[in-house]
Design a protein that fits this description.
Elements (H helix, E strand, L loop, with lengths): L6 H99 L8 E2 L17 E4 L5 E3 L4 E7 L11 E6 L5 E10 L6 E2 L4 E5 L9 E7 L7 E2 L1 H7 L5
Antiparallel strand pairs: 1-2, 2-9, 3-8, 4-5, 4-7, 5-6, 6-8, 6-9, 9-10
């Protein structure tokens, strides 16, 4: 059958062919557009993933920094606490050492005693109030220097303070005070001698104005009679309780 004999059919076929061509043309264009659309999408996704990874890495870094700072702070606090504890221990040890040193800085003049007449006590044995502290001990008991110093009086007649004291010694100490030891049976030091704390300087006795064997002990502000203070209170302040 000739195409010329059916013009309408030929036109339909032509239109169909043209439509197919157009579809092919437009289909190819749509595919290209879709491909172009997919390319930016892929790039955006990769960028988002990279950004997320970067954000996660930054967050991890910040967390690590915060953790390190917290650890450093805790370590500093521990070091500070340890230093404070060490300082407190050192301070306590120093105080204990100072207290121990002070305790041996002054000592009792005799041991094995009984306290009799006290400071400022009245009695028939002395004209005014009692000027010292009496320690009742047997004759011959060792008498020790209550503190280191220099002997400024030593001998009979109270070492110059009067016969009522019998044989006596007066020692000058570095803090400006003086200690006196009286009614001695024997004196082992002389004027000018340097003595140490606890050194034996004499033996107790019953010389002078005495009602029985004992040591009469004074703390004075000068070397002479009449300047005494309460020896028990003085020694207590120095860490020695009689």
């Amino acid at each position: 059958m000739s195409h010329a004999k059916h013009p309408a059919r030929n036109a339909a076929v032509a239109l169909a062919a043209a439509g197919m061509g157009a579809a092919m043309v437009f289909g190819a264009g749509a595919s290209a557009v879709a491909a172009e659309a997919r390319a930016p999408l892929a790039l955006d996704t990769a960028a988002a993933v990279a950004a997320q990874a970067s954000a996660q890495a930054e967050a991890a870094h910040q967390a690590a920094v915060a953790k390190a700072a917290q650890a450093a702070k805790a370590q500093a606090a521990q070091a500070k606490a340890a230093a404070a504890k060490k300082a407190a221990v050192a301070k306590a040890a120093a105080a204990k050492k100072a207290a121990a040193a002070k305790a041996v800085d002054w000592v009792k003049p005799v041991t094995g005693y009984k306290l009799t007449a006290g400071y400022a006590q009245g009695g028939a044995m002395w004209t005014n109030k009692h000027s010292g502290q009496d320690f009742a001990v047997p004759v011959g008991t060792p008498v020790k220097a209550a503190h280191s110093g220099v002997v400024v009086k030593a001998g009979p007649n109270g070492g110059g303070d009067g016969p009522a004291y019998g044989n006596a010694i007066v020692i000058k100490h570095a803090n400006g005070t003086y200690s006196q030891y009286a009614h001695l049976s024997k004196i082992n030091v002389s004027v000018g001698a340097k003595v140490k704390t606890g050194q034996q300087i004499a033996r107790s006795g019953n010389t002078g104005n005495s009602s029985g064997p004992h040591l009469h002990f004074e703390i004075r502000t000068t070397a002479d009679y009449g300047s005494s203070v309460n020896p028990a209170s003085f020694l207590r302040a120095e860490g020695v309780v009689i």
